[in-house]
Amino acid sequence: MLNFIRKYWQVLARPSTSIGLGVLTLGGFVAGVIFWGGFNTALEVTNTETFCTGCHEMRDNVFAELQTTIHFTNRSGVRATCPDCHVPHEWTQKIARKMQASKEVWGHLFGTIDTREKFQDKRIDLAIHEWTRLKANDSLECRNCHSDESMDITRQSVRAADAHERFLFTGEKTCIDCHKGIAHRLPDMSQVPGWQ
Predict the structure, then answer these.
(1) How far apart are CA 123 and CA 188, in angstroms?
(2) Long-range contacts made by residues 93-97, C-beta under 8 angstroms, separation at least 24?
(3) What distance in Å separates the CA atoms of residue 33 and residue 84, rounded to the nearest whole number?
(4) DSSP assignment of 77-136, as one string?
(5) Dmax over Cα atoms in the chain, in whole Å?
(6) Local structure of 20: helix, strand or coil
(7) pLDDT tens, 146-162?
(8) pTM for this structure?
């Protein structure tokens, strides 16, 4: 067996005598395009609401909650899907988020939240994790749709306009600081330090 591996390695390590450099270059280019196309296609397939709600943990818990909010049904007809709020649109940040999400796949495989009771028990941890992530990236996913540059505060309530001028426009706070529970039910907030 070791002898076979040695011979195979020698074939791979030695320059080609029968295939031209142009063919190898073209073959590498074609293989790269196929790899990139497959990778990008897989990335986009995993970035759909259908994919996100494919497992019952999401479909029966957080997606059911989303359906009762203004982010799902509203007067303008614009619907926010799971990736709109949980995956950045810029490519490098999207890849980083997908790498983080691979941990969620392990949670699914090992049944971390496979029942409503387990989900409710972990809900505060899941929420804090997501709020921390959004706080760290300055609510980037919120800003994919809600731009403070295009926000018309004259059409907001006095309280909302005042809060946006004092906190959002100054950079003192970010969207998630005030808008927790905007698309999903809040967990038991008595467990969150500093929550009023």
Answers:
(1) 8
(2) 93/137, 93/140, 94/43, 94/47, 95/43
(3) 27
(4) -----HHHHHS-SSHHHHHHHHHHHHHHHHHHHTTTT-SHHHHHHHHHHHHHHHHHHHHH
(5) 80
(6) coil
(7) 887 888 888 989 999 99
(8) 0.75
